[in-house]
Amino acid sequence: MSDYSLLKPDFSKGLLPVILQHYTSKDVRMMGYMNEEAFELTKKEGVVWFFSRSKDRLWKKGESSGNVQYVKDMHLDCDQDALLIMIDPVGPTCHTGADSCFNLAPSFTLKDIESTISDRATSSEEKSYTNYLLKEGIDKIAKKFGEEAFEIVIGAKNKDKTEIKNEAADVLYHLGVLLYNSGVSVAEVEAVLASRHESKNNFKGERQTIQDW
């Protein structure tokens, strides 16, 4: 995460175009405009403020609906006259009730799996398969992960794309449970991958970087 408190947009060209993007799914949520006061309020309060061109006033996104957009990070473009804000939204972003003002295809990431597993783990749903695995512990979780991984091998040997896709989904889910049980987040795994991607000289021996894969 960058230190966005140091950002200095160029307002000499007028209002600053701003894109809101979900910080985990990377879905583009909306575009708006800021003047300097809206930008400073956004930095100060950690929620998105805009300048409304139609109403000619400042407005906090979600001030009526309660669907505020919490700021996770901000980045200026190379000319310092456009802003990308990574957000953690409360509810939908679009005033229509849709998540995004853009017509986007549904997205699903490993962090969505992580979130679902976390929700199941803290719920009182006794019939939850996730809760069952977590109660059984690492031996059961590791055994199931190994079984699903082997099923992918069988699917690959059979050249059955449908089987491979289904078993891969099972593997990723059980990996998510294993990570949760071990106290390792998806973000931590992503950080390792990012580190390997940034420098191929960070690791020695068999631990290869992404460029070497």
From TrEMBL:
Keyword Amino-acid biosynthesis: yes
Organism the protein comes from: Alkalibacterium olivapovliticus
Domain of life (superkingdom): Bacteria
Class of the enzyme per the UniProt entry, highest EC level: hydrolase
Cross-referenced Pfam families: PRA-CH, PRA-PH
GO CC terms: cytoplasm
EC number: 3.5.4.19, 3.6.1.31
Family: In the N-terminal section; belongs to the PRA-CH family.
Localisation per UniProt entry: Cytoplasm
Name this protein carries in UniProt: Histidine biosynthesis bifunctional protein HisIE
UniProt keyword list: Amino-acid biosynthesis, ATP-binding, Cytoplasm, Histidine biosynthesis, Hydrolase, Multifunctional enzyme, Nucleotide-binding
Pathway(s) served: Amino-acid biosynthesis; L-histidine biosynthesis; L-histidine from 5-phospho-alpha-D-ribose 1-diphosphate: step 2/9; Amino-acid biosynthesis; L-histidine biosynthesis; L-histidine from 5-phospho-alpha-D-ribose 1-diphosphate: step 3/9
Record keyword Chloroplast present: no
